[in-house]
């Protein structure tokens, strides 16, 4: 069975790539407004129209899909930001447009991904905004962004499970913790079985262990060598140099190294025609690690099926 996918706030397509580690995926459409990701998406999925700004789309005219996946903007949820929350007028409030897409298209399964701050950042809800209600006063519980997402999905007829997974949990040499929500309709059992049953963390290839290329004590990665070597084994390719020569002659962070850190195939972002270094780094910084997404989705699908939730 091939899963038809629509990816919202798609970036470089990381959630779709993660789903592709679990199932055969046919990306039918994507949505992103940034110039860099738009170039990347067009290069890899030229058959999939980019619908652009999700706040302006007539979702009744969009092709139905089996799965809608999206990592809506995190700036207002992140612990590193201003913590404005998931409210009207904030970038993170764009979740409401994704909810509208889900309401109209009614996919079997929804995947939502975001930063750990989604567990604690405040959120607005039309159902819980009045005085004396949830979040209505300083002495009362506050509605959180994750609760808003799960609550909205429940209102649309979806059950859901969620988890937090670090990139390092699947072998990556960096933490990058993310929250994942998997939501499903009552008729989604077949789709969930597909997402559960593929082996997790499957390697794309094999190569000679990196240690054999460097004499003992001469690894260029110093104390980071074990973490680097582990991810080389998972991804099936050697880590590229972490720096490159910048336009002023000094060493700067290499986008190809960041691309490897994110678990992407070589050149997935960096070989995109017309993409600047800053655009590549921005896209990579905002993206999802496919192996991390696959692990979370598979785990949540297994949870739903094993506990009789569907």
Descriptive labels:
310 residues, alpha/beta, six-stranded mixed beta sheet, two-stranded antiparallel ribbon, 8 strands, 30% helix
Q: Quick recap of the structure?
A:
With 310 residues, the chain is α/β, with parallel strands linked by helices.
Account of the 3D structure:
30% of the residues lie in helices and 15% in strands. The protein has helices spanning 14-20, 35-44, 95-105, 145-155, 189-197, 225-235, 255-261, 277-286, 290-306; strands at 2-8, 24-31, 67-70, 109-114, 159-165, 178-184, 243-245, 251-253. The chain has 310 residues and is an alpha/beta fold.
Largest sheet: 6 strands, mixed
Oligomer: single chain
Q: Which spans of ≥5 residues are poorly predicted at pLDDT below 50?
A: 200-216
Overall outline: globular
SSE blueprint:
Blueprint (H helix, E strand, L loop, with lengths): L1 E7 L5 H7 L3 E8 L3 H10 L22 E4 L24 H11 L3 E6 L30 H11 L3 E7 L12 E7 L4 H9 L27 H11 L7 E3 L5 E3 L1 H7 L15 H10 L3 H17 L4
Parallel strand pairs: 1-2, 1-3, 3-4
Antiparallel strand pairs: 4-6, 5-6, 7-8
Helix pairs in contact: 1-9, 5-9
């Amino acid at each position: 069975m091939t899963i038809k996918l629509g990816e919202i706030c798609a970036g470089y397509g990381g959630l779709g790539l993660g789903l592709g580690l679990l199932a055969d995926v046919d990306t039918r459409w994507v949505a992103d407004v940034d110039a860099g990701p738009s170039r990347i998406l067009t290069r890899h999925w030229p058959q999939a129209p980019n619908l652009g700004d999700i706040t302006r789309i007539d979702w009744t005219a969009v092709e139905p899909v089996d799965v809608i996946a999206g990592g809506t903007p995190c700036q207002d949820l992140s612990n590193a930001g201003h913590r404005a929350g998931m409210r009207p007028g904030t970038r993170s409030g764009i979740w409401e447009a994704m909810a509208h897409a889900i309401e109209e298209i009614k996919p079997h399964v929804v995947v939502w991904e975001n930063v750990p701050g989604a567990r604690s950042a405040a959120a607005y809800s039309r159902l819980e905004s009045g005085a004396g209600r949830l979040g209505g006063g300083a002495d009362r519980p506050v509605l959180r962004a994750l609760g808003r997402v799960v609550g909205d999905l429940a209102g649309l007829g979806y059950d859901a499970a969620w988890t937090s997974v670090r990139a390092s949990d699947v072998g990556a040499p960096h933490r990058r913790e993310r929250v994942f929500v998997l939501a499903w309709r009552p008729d989604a059992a077949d789709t969930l079985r597909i997402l559960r049953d593929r082996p997790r963390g499957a390697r794309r290839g094999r190569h000679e262990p990196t240690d054999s290329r460097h004499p003992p004590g001469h690894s260029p990665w110093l104390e980071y060598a074990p973490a680097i070597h582990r991810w080389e084994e998972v991804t099936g390719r050697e880590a590229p140099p972490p720096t490159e020569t910048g336009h002023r002659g000094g060493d700067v962070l290499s986008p190809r190294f960041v691309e490897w850190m994110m678990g992407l195939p070589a050149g997935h972002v960096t070989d995109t025609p017309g993409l600047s270094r800053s655009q590549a780094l921005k896209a990579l910084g905002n993206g999802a690690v496919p192996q991390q997404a696959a692990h979370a989705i598979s785990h949540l699908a297994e949870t739903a099926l094993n506990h009789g939730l569907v």
